[in-house]
Amino acid sequence: MSRSLAAWCAAVAFICLTGCKGDSATPDYWEANLQQARRAEDRVRLIEAMRKSGKVNETFLPMLHEQLAGERKPEVKAALARTLEDLHHVSSVEPLKAALDPAAADMSSQLANKAMVTALGTIGDPRAVPALVPLLRAKDNYTRIEAIRVLGTMKAKEAVDSLIALAGDETVEPFLNKKAIEALGHIGDAKAAPTLIRMLTKERKGKSFYVESSFALFQLGQPAADALLPALEGRDPDLLEWAKKNGVNPASYPMKAATVLGDLREKRAVEPLLKLLAFQHPEAQIQALVRMQAAEALGRMRVADAVKPLSAMVAEPDPTVRDAYVRALVRLGGRDALPALEKAATTGEWDSRELAVKGLVMLGDAREQPVLEKLAASEPARTAADCKTTGEEGCEDAAALGKKRAATITQHATLLEAGQSCAGNAGCWVQRLDKASKPLLERAALEIGRTGGAEHVPALTARLGERDTEVRLAFILGTSWLVDGSQDAAKKVRETALPTLRKQLQDEQGVTQLVTVNEDLRRLLARLENT
Predict the structure, then answer these.
(1) Are 507 and 524 in contact (CB under 8 A)?
(2) Domain co-membership, 400 together with 377
(3) CA distance 281 to 288
(4) For the whole model, what pTM was predicted?
(5) Is the N or C terminus of the chain more exposed, i.e. has fewer CB atoms within 10 Å?
């Protein structure tokens, strides 16, 4: 027997024992039964039975409000609050506010507070806000977290100052900081921007607030961009002073700001981002990280002026750094980077060389086929040279390893063929999707995003659930480029894909492998909902 059925049976049994008669579709019937129920647990069972009866409607409201006002047991108040939440009528705002107990010390009272806050949030009337803001300082986290959530959902400007204080409060659990940051993003008040920027680099008890802060800044939009531009260029004295006091490397802010401004497609950031490609720092790792984030942002924004400097940087020997530059060039599109990629495919160790080859075939066409053949033919000799220097895995048979790598290079030829057949033709790329390999899916998604129109929206949105994260990201980017470039495309995505995207994000919560790529999906969804 299920719990709900058991509760119903118990309530019915109790009603039968009391001998009450009348019409169970009327509030008088339930009120009479509640008056005869002495124990709190019996009243809770009755209220839950009433909720499940399917007969509760707005005519029950006066009775429910009266019961709530006169009830002293917190567990009964919680059951009444849940019933009022079901009805979500504005007349319940004042009774629910009056029943709140901000000084609640025992768990039952705290859970009752939480239930009433939830009900007020479901009703969504702004008259509840003055009673909810003080609960941000409640003694228990149950109530505080629910109050934070509800105030954020209600976009309560009156809560901004308190939420800003809570976001940076080092005396509370980091989870509360995170929830306050999320609420500030939902409210979207420009006043929160300085705190959110600081929290990009803040860590407490081993917890980072970057994910929550960067998304909240994205939600703020223009006000966030206004505040991030000085941070990007290192000319925010208050932020620099705060960073110094808190032991934060000031180079962290150009790096973090570049990411958010790239997500926002902020055109004012283009010149500073281009300058950051030549960022200098005594520590090579920090220098590389800032340059990589600038490249990432410029690639996402498809800034054509970035092709030339990135082409000059793509010979970087470190595979992680080279990967960032190649990826940015691939997103920018066009043929201008091909000579640099061809040269880079002959330098560095195998991992770095292969990255350049991948970039080459993601941008080239049949004209690069001889280049690919030449690279494949020379790979066994390069592998043999590598093995003499590094002795890496597989070098016990350098000849076999060289042949294997040459075959890997040759396999990329299908992308060149597609590039030749589909040059500038988004419809041709769409036709390639059904039987495409992973690399071809990535290229097709980016090509459609760069050259397609609203008619190609379904082809991209249908693949936003791809399990391979690199492929999924390509489809997210392609879709976002269509949305950025065409109001018709944005309208079509909203009309055809929004419910599916919302459900997908909900279903995939907690799936570790998808957490990072779904941050991009969240931003796409937010952009669609706010345009």
Answers:
(1) no
(2) yes
(3) 9
(4) 0.90
(5) N
